[in-house]
């Protein structure tokens, strides 16, 4: 089981990099099977590079720091 607070803390460490490019990230949920749902905001929302940011940035950092299989999924709030 993945600790939601640990994921939130890691996202807090990533946040300044996203904010430097005019974007941001919000943690939506963490499932027991390792799916982390986030919402990209600001310049990151709708950016053609957002899939790469999630896969090569956010997801790889979470996998490096948490020794469990993690998949990061972008969701949009209504």
Describe, in plain words, how this protein is organized in 3D.
- This protein is α+β, with helices and mostly antiparallel strands and 78 residues long.
- The protein is 42% helix and 26% strand.
- It is built from two helices and three strands.
- Strand 1 and strand 2 form a beta hairpin.
- Helix 1 packs across helix 2.
- The radius of gyration is 12 Å and the shape is globular.
- The relative contact order is 0.22.
Q: What are the main properties of this structure?
A:
single chain; 78 residues; alpha+beta; 3-stranded mixed β-sheet; 2 helices; 3 strands; 42% helix; globular
Which percent range describes the beta-strand content?
A: 25-35%
How much helix, percentage-wise, in residues?
A: 40-55%
Structural class designation: alpha+beta
| Shape estimate | globular
Number of helices: 2
Alpha-carbon distance between the termini? 28 Å
What Rg is obtained from the alpha carbons, in whole angstroms?
12 Å
What's the β-strand tally? 3
Oligomer status: single chain
Structural topology:
Elements: H1 4-20, E1 23-30, E2 35-42, H2 50-65, E3 71-74
Parallel strand pairs: 2-3
Antiparallel strand pairs: 1-2
Précis, in short:
This protein is α+β, with helices and mostly antiparallel strands. It has helices at about 5-20, 50-65, and strands spanning about 25-30, 35-40, 70-75.
